[in-house]
Amino acid sequence: MILYIKLFLRLSIALGFISAVADRLGWWPTEQSTWGNWSNFIAYTQTLNPWFPDYFTNFIGIIVTCAEVILAILLVIGFKTSLSAKISGVLLLIFGVAMSITVGIKAPLDYSVFSAAAAAFGLGLIKEKYLEVDVLLQAK
């Protein structure tokens, strides 16, 4: 049973990242979007990071987007799952804390950011392997 839970955690965290990236790139229908485009995402990124200069915000957005895509891929294929999960948890926790400080606690609770971070940290603790590239790499 734990193996199915691990797979569900991997896929749900990865799909959450992919959905967020798709939203900021305008790939979700407008009525289903939070940001809807890159400009709105960058404006929100600036809101969450007021301590950074405006010219740095686009760079932060690119870094976070790349991190989400890379982590999503690693989680889906099961490469370095424990490490990928822990990094995902840290990224989500940073996001949740930034949201709490700048826009209030309700936003990260409504978007289940802390729940996703906890799920990622929990995933990082599951040692059993299931449908993971890591299994293939161990065999060599």
Q: What features would you describe in this structure?
A:
The protein has one domain (2-138). 75% of the residues lie in helices and 0% in strands. The chain contains 7 helices and no strands. It has helices at 2-24, 38-48, 54-77, 81-103, 106-110, 113-125, 133-138. The longest helix has 24 residues, at 54-77. It is elongated and about 50 Å long.
Helices and strands, in order, run as HHHHHHH
Number of helices: 7
- Percentage of residues in strands: under 5%
Q: Any idea how many domains?
A: 1
- Mean pLDDT level: 95
The main β sheet shows up as: none
Structural classification: mainly alpha
Helix content: over 70%
Transmembrane segments: 55-77, 89-105
Keywords: Membrane, Transmembrane, Transmembrane helix
Protein name: DoxX family protein
List the topology elements.
Layout: H1 2-24, H2 38-48, H3 54-77, H4 81-103, H5 106-110, H6 113-125, H7 133-138
Helix pairs in contact: 1-3, 1-6, 2-3, 3-4, 4-6
Transmembrane segments: 55-77, 89-105
Keywords: Membrane, Transmembrane, Transmembrane helix
Protein name: DoxX family protein
Provide a compact summary of the structure.
This protein is mainly α and 140 residues long. It is 75% helix and 0% strand.
Task: Sum up the structure in keywords.
single chain, 140 residues, 7 helices, 75% helix
